[in-house]
Queue: 3 jobs
Job 1
Amino acid sequence: MIAIALDENGDFEGFQQFGQPEPLFIAGIVYDDKGHENDAWKEMQRLDDYFRAVASTVKCHYPIDLHVNHQGTNGYNVKRMKTELQATLPEFFQQGTYKNKKIGKYPRHGSYRIVMMLKSSIGKSILNRKSTSMLVNDEYASNLYMNMAYSIVSRLVFHNPYDLHVSKVKFDLATRQVPVKADDTELCNKYTKIGYKYKNEEGDIRFFQVANDYNYRAALDRKLLETNRLDLEIDRFSVRSILYYADQEKSKQYTFLYLADTICAILNHNKEGQSVTEWQESFVKQATQLNGSSQNLIFMYDDIDMAYEQAVTAYQQKDYFKSLSVLFASKQSRSEFKNYYWEQWFPKIEEWISQVNDVDAIEEAVRQFSKYANSNLLKQDELVYLHTHLKPLVEQTKIDKRSQYIFYDASVTAYNHIGDSQMAEQCFEICKRFAKYCHVEEYLLTIKRRVVMLNDQYRYEEALSLAKEILEYEDELASLRQLLVASDEEASISKGRALSQCGQVYAYMRDPQAETCFKEALAQFDEQSIDYNITLSYLLHHYIDMDNRESYERYAPIYFGGHDEVWDQFKYLKDMTEDAQKQQSFKFAFYVYIKALYTFYLDQLNSEKRRDLFKWVQNIPKSSKSEHLNGHPWELIYKYFALLAFAYKKQELADEFIQLTQTIVQERAAAIDNIIAGGLVEYYTLVGNNELAEKAKELFTNQQLQNDYENILVYMFR
């Protein structure tokens, strides 16, 4: 059983308009009895003895002098008590003694954790938007306090990183009353409007009861159902005012609450710094000094904590794909506590996932991984992250052979996307072992992925031979399909993909047959499909590479939403909806656009449009398109922005963009490294810095590229 005792610190309602900013937090202790019956109650008695011994030492009164009274007449005594408690709590926590003397009649079996939920400067953004209902909006009445209270209780009971399977809980929570002037009708109405009632009045002050057993109970009931923890046993559910005038018999019942109050006071009194980040570091340090444990539970009331909850919940529901996806997404979080959560909490979830052995759940994660690998909204870095964490599960559990094939097939795609042809090759070889467990059409797709590998290794002749072989297989399958199912339908998505890929290889070889293959491929697809848009982008890249502006302009409007004008095409991309992006990748479409702009249309933009274009790309990290700012081909997009900036005589901006080409793609291998190197050579040659151009050539991964990069890095590699 765990016993939870919590108290608070700070002006949650914002009543205090002046003075130094102070941290807002709910903190206290968790006592884990380690399964020993009555150990928690014995610990409460031990605490009572400890507090009395401290009071005797400093000649104060217990429990009165644990807290400043309403009159403020015992402030000096409270200070003396807190000072002594601060000095001796580490000994008590760690050894159960005071001044080296044993405290209590019975040995301690359990252990303490200091706990806290500290509000960040932003909080949880979803709960402080104007559109958020007043029932939960943090800026309305005392909702912030209640939301924080629910959050910490949830972390301790349902998402506890040190005990995910808490089976029995004892709650000892403090009630909270908020004083509001009776003549402040607006504020009084705020509280009554959302169901808060005032329990009593003193003069012109109404005391609204914010935290009580009913709303805590309602929140827990809801969480029990959400998490399917219907087996959770409640030993005691106590929500009450902390009684500081208790007699010797009653004081034992409040000792955990007294301790929670003491912890809050000590942490706040000794905080360091002026910002939330500094306070948080200070609280973590203090908690460790007090408890001597790295297993204290310090959480932030912040968006990053919502990611933690989502990831843990998904793990508990055995949705390992979602859990890992949430973890990856958190890496892009702008939270100032992202690093803390990645140091303290997120690795624990990764560790839990690495140890699972549920075959059905792992196979489902593999299916989701494969589906994502073949989607139009994928993030290359995320694919590799997912592969890295799912691979041990696939290897150490007995999932079926077909699921293993599906996993390694998707992994080929993952490593193709980052230009790691060696890893892609390894995954392909494993696929071959399980090929008999998949459909012929599926295996043809896998072989098509091998063509990509060969292109990434600049083995164009081999790639062409394999692409042609695939086309032959497609024709044989089409003939067989005609025998089995009589149909006048000649279109075939599978054959269209094979033709499209064959066109790609020809394009890398700068062979005019590329155009024919691409056009034949387009005829196989629905014009609204992903495949059509992908193949059309390949064709447009070919026209740009061949400097064929006339043909490019014939097909570009189809690709850019029916827009002929270059600036209208930019606006189409800039305003592309999420639905549109399911059919057409934003970043790959923008790659086509910016490459064509530099190649064909340098004279099409006036100074105002140039300024808007550069301003837009500089603001992408802060825009709705920021989630697309990852992976290939951003290294090429930024290269073309660098070339554009130089052409428009913006040298400083050009240098900024060319530097970004080297950092924007985090997860990458040889093929992308070579693209980046080629871009540097191209840029520094253009600006006349031959020294840096020659230095950039040294970045190529093989001698062949160093000698002949201009004829190798063509088409979509430049």
Note: The radius of gyration is 32 Å.
Job 2
Amino acid sequence: MMTLQTTPDRPRIDAREKVLGRALYAADIALDGLLHAITVPATIAKGRVTAIDTALAIAEPGVVRVYTHEDFADDIAVTPATLGGNQPGLQPMTDTMIRFRGQPVALVVAETLEAACEAARLVRVSYRVEPFTATMDELGSEAEPYEITAEVGDAHAALQAAEVTVDAVYAQAQNHHNPLELISTTAYWGAGKLTILEGTQNTSAIKFGTAGALGFAPSTVDAISPYVGGAFGQKTVLQLQSALVSRAAVLLGRPVKLVMPRAQLFHTAAYRPRSNHRIQLGASRDGRLVATIYESDQQNARYDHFYGTSHNEMVSHLYGIANWLGRERLIRVDTSPPGYMRAPHEHPASFAFESAIDELAYLLEMDPVVLRLVNDTDRDPITGKPYSSRTLARCLERGAELFGWNRRNPAPRTMTAEDGTLIGWGVAAGAYKGSMCPAIARLRIQANGVTRLFITGHEMGQGMRSAIAAELMEVLPVNLDKLDIQMGDTRAAAQHLTAGSWGTGSAVPATRAVAEKMKAALTELVGELREGDDVHRKLMSTKRPMLEVEIEQLGLDQTQAALDRMRQGAPATAGPIYDELVAFSWIAHFVEVRVDPTTMRVRVPRVVSVADCGRVMNRRTATSQVQGGVVWGIGAALQEAAEVDPRYGFIQNNDLADYVVPVNADIGDITVELLDIPDLQLNASGVKGVGEVAMVGASAAVANAVFHATGKRIRHLPIRIEDLL
């Protein structure tokens, strides 16, 4: 990998314990007297429960209790605290209403998992079925009014006057996250405290949401997320099971654990919803983009609070287009609630918009890279503000160089291998907002060589601990072998939602600030620190067992109010638009596809991705993030789609046998280059996010390459073999 780096390359600090199996995830933590729980899912899409017979289930050996809405109706509620924790507007088992197939209607608690599962199959539920609508294409779907989400200039007039136009509709299928670690909740009650262990990106949602749902004071609830085995947005919320398991643990006085089976997660956990995108582009004959009208429809649940009107947020800032109109709406149906999934709106928006840009390039008979470069800009077209950094052109130029783009024959179906295989080359660009959150960091250095950092944030496989360690070592040479970073724990520090690629950009500057404060405190005690000094021995010389400092860090342009919101479990992000600037990470993807001329099977043997994520804190983890995003983009482009049966409202391919995701055999060479240019206007560490920008534009580049190979423009994802026959 050809990363230009300013930060030393260091190994991932948690690699050894993960490889050796010593890293503990929430469901791994052993507790005395642990009970096991499983939910009983509804088998109808809409209606009411008329009766529940639990007699056979209760009689099953090992079963402790079977809970239904009759037990929880008065004990669990949806509250403002719950919604503040980013919870959809539903708490199951509080009434008889069924709002989607798979909704929990009973909770079985037993001494063993086997007993719980067997008893769950014995619960008999009767329903009164009501008419329902499972997809947004059906009669009965409810379209909300359009909301204008981006507007500058007069897009209609500019489009009408444009010399060349594109008008096309693009469709995004429903996708599911499928992280390796299933969603689990373990809860126990003792000494007046409820403790919840859950793999989550948002322990504040768990703490405050569960407290609100159960009527507890937040001070009596702790939430801990030690490690997360993949999340990608699915674990940003208080899960539907969290309050159920917690209430059962309180009532029974024993720890209770529920690990939701994958088949049920397809129906109960968040996912990327279906969406349609109409893109109208106008340009002059020399390739200057003069107008865009972008309208999107996104499927949503009837009662859901998932924010669905952000498709314009990224693409409206991508090029210098002076006239832009963005209109978006939700279409409500009777399904489980969707939610955030890696590059939640940016991924489908980039597929639609960057496909339309590609179509325009062919109409103009213009190189797609040149068209994008012609429309580069120094100032944000929507706000008129400067960017904190603007390196998209550099990403495109460097990517083209690495890929060998100058060898491309521009005409579709003209590049072939010796065996007749069709070869296609495609390009797409992307961006992701540079956001920040408040953070709290408490650093403790001990004379015995141990260093403990208690900090805001969640480690979910993105390498946040390694980035924090790298920044700490830049300021203070502590003993890395005895460094303990505690995060994702509401006991250690107030926690924010770690998502939207703002985790590292918030925690790393806080780490630098607390390390500098500790260095100043040590200097005051022992004098000026010199290179090679052992800070622990220096502290020992003062006969102090430890020294501790704490800081509170605000994001750019944030006030104390943001920190107060975070302490209360509410979202507290800033960006990408700040008082004086606009901040984004940038990326360019170049993709080669090979299409079998007989079967039309599409392979992706080669990808080059060049990204600017500010300062690169850990080259290994950042490179891995981009590679993972590209793989996901390939999967979204060619494989992944949930198949919803409109007759019964359930997902037919609700397992990894039928919901197809990329495997090693599907992936070729992925070359990643990171520009590694600190963005010091955004924060003192110069870091921006990389986890989500990695995926933005990857699917579009695949689709554009497929067109170049076959001459067929496919405007929906995924692209199936039958689309190319």
Note: The domain at 436-567 is CATH 3.30.365.10 (Aldehyde Oxidoreductase; domain 4).
Job 3
Amino acid sequence: MNKNLKKKLLLAALCGAVLPATLAGEAAAEENVDAAPSYDFGTSDVYGEKTAAPPQEPSAPEPEKEAAEDYGAVTRAPQTGLLGERDIMDTPYNVIGYTAENIERTQDKTLAAVVEQNASVNVMSGGTASESWSIRGFDVGGTDVAYNGLYGVAPSYSVGTEALERVDVLTGPAAMLSGVAPGQSVGGIINLVPKRAPEDGIRRVTVGLTNGHQKSVAVDVGERFGTDKQFGVRVNGAWRKGQTAYDREEQDYRGFALALDARGKRWNASLDFGFQDNDVDNPTGIVTMGTRGLPAHKMRSRTNLAASGTYAHTIDRYAMLHGDYALTEDARWKAFADFGIKKSTQDYVRSSAVLTNAALGTATMRKYFQPSSYEAHSEQVGVRGKAETGILTHDLLFAASSIHQDRESNSFNLYRNSAATISTFTQNIYTPDWDSIGAWDFLMAGTDTSLRNRSTVDYRGISFIDTIATPDKRWQVMLGARWQKLESEYYNARRKRVTSHYDKQKLVPSFGFVYKFNPRFSGYANYSESLQEGGWADYINAPNYGEVFAPIIVKQKEFGFKYDMGAMATTLSFYEIKKPSVIQDDVTLIMSQAGETRGRGVELNVFGDAAKNVHVLASLAYMKNEYTKENPGFIGKTPQGYPSWKGALGIEYDVPGVEGLSVSGKLVYVGSQYTNAANKSAQEVPSWTRFDLGARYKFMSGKTPMTLTADIINLFDRSYWVGVNNGAYMARPRTFMISLSAEL
């Protein structure tokens, strides 16, 4: 079956599932129009915040409307950086917030399991040691995850979701809204919203079992205190231990989060602490294809290509303080401030398998010691307020932010003995015998492990945003400008000196608007620029490994449409992103900032209640990323590790006649992708499709609410590959998960 036909069939399948659901949702909305948000364009009480209306002729009062509910697994008001929480219909960006209900439903308590539901997000990691993604075909590292709207706080390597209330995904560069991403991400923002103590308190204990080997326990306790419940405390703890779905991969994970909050008549404050310790033995390994391509024969889905004795031990510590104060009694003007700190460390002994004969399965293996650390502190202060000029209303924002980060990393070859005479060994990946290898745990004599590649980077910015609206809010125009300064210094351990120092600043614009054709249907567009780090030569085989490149300017154009059906909604987006790129020459292996990557794409999302008992979360993305100039050998080629097509379809069905029982199914499709910039056919990772099944049963045990959840990930145990730069991981094998929660 050719690729084009596969794409058409995928699109037809998704549309076949989504379109009837959309029509059903619209029909349901028409039958119960009072349940859906509506407004009269002759007033100013519409979606979003209320503003003072211009004088009008007296009219009969309308009953007060209740706040619109979420679309089930997706919130109506995700966080949009400095703009705060805004209704998606009033936001000139494509942003989707996955709710606590969605996160609780996902037994695999990883951030990757949540964001993979978004077709614009591609998971680029395997196993449980660390997580990485791409958004719209551009890398998003762990340091590019925001915490409650602030960079430099969230864990750097992996994120447990037990302490999260929501995960917001904003696609497209948005430095205007959130500042410069410290890890150079331009494709979008992943924002973590922590849990707060609910009004009625919570005491939940969850125990789980994965594949009969890995055990887990999670505790979630929250309570409010005071005469008006103005003080809140919430504690989340999680523990997972045992073998994962991969052969020989063992995980010992511990996570803890403490959330404190207080609220007064004119002020709010919160303080969050978090700790994660993730220790993984034999984390599943990567195959570096070189010119040989993928293994010629099908492999067991559970195959772990990591050499014995490898491990990844990461520790993340973080804290964040937030406060806001109403400067006026009517709260039309508010001041806010945030401060966050983080320290992350990783000890990592990994192996790589360079395939030398795809038919026979022989590979040359090497082991590396790769320690790294990351420290950061970040701050932002600002003022939000409302004003009027004639009949127009203004939502104004003034904010200043800064991030300081220190990064250290290095890579050392490991050897069989202290003589360091042999640095590689041969293994057959079809029939591996890891016990025969012996110990490979010696560094080269005279190696100074304290001498590391180090970088210090400072990002500073001052933002001004004015969102202008007509009295009926049919037109909303966002005008913004941000002064950005980036100062960086890099120390290369090989050269034992500072290799680069950059100090660059620029004033960048941003523009966006929303036009509401009617109360349910709106169109939007935006344009933005941002100053970003230029990247570095990060492939260890590059002769100029460690070289850092000058800062770059990234540009985005986007437009789209949003349709609200009350209990269900649809978004459609079209975009273009241009970014100067770093590529590696296939012959010289030298890395350089020698081209430009242009990303163009289309995104379709459908989410909410399609019918009384049917809940849908569907996403489809086409991402055409290619090198566009300056290096003739790469023009028109697709950057490595990024698929052009991705689709995700999740459906949950509440079984009639059995109160509390629901069943679910999920389909994930990822298109083919290259692992080299030259797009050689031998180095193409095939497309794959994964099916998951699940069930939940809520019941009472005496007076105790209970929830029993069971999931099968990769139902058919399909063996497939997850493509990354220069190689691929074995994807998630069939995984059985069961858990029992009790509300005490």
Note: The chain is about 5% helix and 55% strand.
